Amino acid sequence: MTLAAEIEQIKVYVIFCSRGYRRHVPGAPIRRSRGRPAGGGITAEQSKQVFLDAAERLFATVGYRESTMEVIAREAGYSRGSIYRHFPTRDSLVDALIQRITQRHMTGILDRLSPNAGPLDILIESMVIVATELVHDPLLRTISDESDEGTVGRMLANNTALVQMVEPVMAEMLSSDGGRQFRRDLRPKDLAQYFISTSISMLLGVIPGTEDAQTVRRYIDVFVLPAIVAHPPKPRAVFPD
Fold it and tell me: What is the mean pLDDT of residues 43-55?
């Protein structure tokens, strides 16, 4: 299999696992008609997406704090009881929305990579983009600025669905690599959890200087790659003096 074919196959895994992702969304979602469409109902999954679309619009316009469950349900064209059947708590809705935003960015990352990028290149560039760009996502910033400190990071860290989404991507990377660069004893689930945890640390600014892409690359070379590759690069200075 060529490298271009490997990357395309990994893209398929990401898109398949991120069922809520719509390719037209670089910013706010296209507004759908409110409530049930004429001529029949919609599935439970489609209803969830309608609520998430409404929440995304409201968070961006009236703010996170003002967007109560009742307000979101009204914006979606449903009753207050309907939204609670899909999302028992407001935190569960925000959790699903953060996951959808992350999935959107993850697929976008793969679209931007060179066709000649190998599995390890994909992993490194994904971490760089998460650290330097995801933090600037306007919706995540709104949620982070108007919620308790650490809400976004905590929800990402505790999101089992996110691990389940990333794990098959890591499995495909390890399989296509065939032990050429990655350590042969790595489990996809462990690599997925490590990738998410390290990315969140960068996203939250726990690691200093990670708003700079070159600092992120040096940090990955010195501290991340030795844990996951068979032949890591030699140590070098990471943080500026």
Answer: 92
